[in-house]
Amino acid sequence: MKNVVFGFVLVLLCGCNTYQVNSLPYDPELKDVVVVHNPKVIVKDFVEVMTDEFNARKIKVRNVPQNYVSKPNEYVVHYDARQSWDFTLYLSDATIRIIRDGMTVGKGKYHHVGRSMSLDIFTKWRGTEWKMKDLYEGLLKNYKTAND
């Protein structure tokens, strides 16, 4: 029983970020993606960070309204991001889905373990770019950046 309590306390104190990623397969024809606006997302720089990650891999981003109807063979990005509160707002969950012709071809999820109960002073309040970097590196690993 002590081990269970110790483990729970350790998670509360340390917290951590978890990532689940299914990488986007390489397609030499992929030059741009369409990002469908999600009005429920209030994380100020979420789309900006996403755009920077795609652009770093020479993939252009076009932002479209929520009611956009995709074209055949088009890569469409849907996203969701949630914030939690602990003295200030912080990114606690995010999902990126890349769809082509009605099929999910790439997906990534970020989750901050522990939510508001986490006393994780090292990563909880870090910015969107820092938290999402590992997700995009996994999601877009088949596409080189200028630094690669």
What percent of residues are in strands? 25-35%
Number of helical segments? 3
Helical residue percent band: 10-25%
Number of E-type strands: 6
How much is the radius of gyration in Å? 17 Å
Shape: globular
* Average of per-residue pLDDT values: 85
What does this structure look like?
Helix 2 (46-55) packs across helix 3 (128-139). The longest helix is centred in the first third of the chain and has 13 residues, at 2-14. Strands 1-6-5-4-2-3 form a six-stranded mixed beta sheet, covered by helices on one side. Helix content is 24%, strand content 34%. It has three helices and six strands, in the order H-E-E-H-E-E-E-E-H. Mean pLDDT is 85; it is low at 4-14. The chain is of the alpha/beta class and 148 residues long. The chain is globular. The protein has helices at residues 2-14, 46-55, 128-139, and strands spanning 16-22, 32-36, 60-64, 75-85, 89-100, 103-113.
What does the secondary structure layout of this molecule look like, with pairings?
Elements: H1 2-14, E1 16-22, E2 32-36, H2 46-55, E3 60-64, E4 75-85, E5 89-100, E6 103-113, H3 128-139
Parallel strand pairs: 2-3, 2-4
Antiparallel strand pairs: 1-6, 4-5, 5-6
Helix pairs in contact: 2-3
Short description:
This protein has 3 helices and 6 strands. With 148 residues, the protein is of the alpha/beta class.
